[in-house]
Amino acid sequence: MAPSKVVLHGHELSYVDSGSGPVVLFIHGILGSQRQWAHLVDQMDEDHRVVVPDLFGHGESAKPLGDYSLSAHAATMRDLLDHLGIQKVTLVGHSLGGGIAMQFFYLFPERVERLVLVSSGGLGREVNLILRAATLPGAEQVLSVVASVPVTSRLRAVGRGAEKVGWRPGADVGAIWRGFSSLSDRESRRAFLATTRAVIDLGGQSISAHDHLGDALPVPVLIVWGTRDRMIPASHALSAQQLVPECQVELFEGAGHFPHLDDPDRFARVLRDFVAADPASD
User: Fold this and answer.
1) Distance (Å) of CA 169 to CA 40, 162, 174
2) Which of 97, 103, 180, 258 could form a disulfide with 70 if both were Cys (CB 3.0 to 4.6 A apart)?
3) Is-contact 17 28, C-beta < 8 A?
4) Apex CA 96: angle with CA 276 and CA 220, to 5°?
5) Residue 81 contacts by C-beta under 8 Å, 6 or more apart in sequence?
């Protein structure tokens, strides 16, 4: 389904709105886009209304100067739902999107039916050194070189050569490469750095949801993680479960930071079962 666009706060936001029924809002992570959820739209929209935006600073949405904090992204999601006439949703957030989903719940709890956190930010300090490096002075200059067309073209050629001798990139490599390739223009790099620096400092993640998670959440929570996540460790899922014992945790053995791409059929099955469950039984 072709994306639609809406102007929010003077800037265009791209989104997919497909199907009818209970509403599921998917929120991608840093360097991600609505494309990462495309297979789930196909699997969910027969009996659900599926809303999948590109966050500001990502994909086909505008990349304005301004606020890229979790609260700003959460407010944009609220404004999109208002535009679509949607009152309540199941939120599915991956990585940064998990942090946005938790912030949305904190700000607008009456609008959330369920919360699904996939390899989520905001549940611990540890995060990959690559993202921490984006907080260093001079990061924009370094990115302008390494994400330039000549460099990415050369890397793409190396990748094609490796594939000819049997190398097969996994879901993490493919998703991160597509995100990295999107940084060829200055506006995208600026938005990426602003987004990263809003949630990460040199020591790791600077935003924590633990203070809010300590109180029993009044909505069902599902946490999904890959056991081989090298961006944010899977131990964060287990620490969150200690804070919210009634939440459901699904560990995808051998999956990386993108379990919904590593094992899309299992992820769709787990998500459908979670959304379909009677809240009274959770």
Assistant:
1) 21, 9, 6
2) 103
3) no
4) 25
5) 25, 51, 87, 89, 111
Told to judge if 181 belongs to the known catalytic residues of this protein, a careful annotator would answer: no
Bridge partners of residue 49, in order along the sequence = 23
Name the burial class of residue 165, with classes exposed (0-12), middle (13-18) and buried (19+) by CB atoms within 10 angstroms of its CB. Answer: exposed
Q: Are 224 and 165 in contact (CB under 8 A)?
A: no
Residue among 89, 32, 96 nearest 59 (CA): 32
pLDDT digits (tens, 9 = 90+) for 164-212: 555 455 667 777 767 777 787 889 888 988 999 889 888 888 888 866 6
Interval 88-123: pLDDT, tens: 999 999 999 999 999 999 999 999 999 999 999 988
Options 45, 54, 172, 229, the catalytic residue: 229
Query: Can you give the pTM of this predicted structure?
Result: 0.86
Q: Catalytic annotation on 95?
A: yes
